[in-house]
Amino acid sequence: KAIRISDDVTKSSSKPMIWVDGGIHAREWVSPSTVIYIAAALLGEVESSLAGDVQDLVKKYQFVILPNSNPDGYEYSRTTYRFWRKTRRPSGCELKKTKKNGKCRKKAKMCYGIDPNRNFDAAFNTLGVSPDPCSYIYPGKAAFSEKNTAAMRDFLAAQINK
Length: 162
Description:
The chain is of the alpha+beta class and 162 residues long.
């Protein structure tokens, strides 16, 4: 769920929107906390010397804040493997170990997760990616194949004409 912050939320859709998301990479634990800190500051928990500036921002803009855009990966990194960064949906067999029927060959492992940062359509699958579903930089089979990136795309696209 996203948090909408404005001086008047009932009229905020007429203001320019600033989108802030965190936790896209599961192992970056400070990211959701940082985003929540930003939300708290926008709600008035700031040093008195900054209060006027923050109030001006909240009057001028609507802020839409998504503290954790990859909760399944985040929880896995907290409970199972500290350095996990991807989502947790099965992503395919090890590179070149898939049978014609789509199943994994004997002794081939099933890979999990897609790097959500690389799952957007901006230059999808071109630079800094790997075709191996087990790689930390595997972008998925198609842009927005992950529920979290598709949800962000759909939400933001719906805001364009508001």
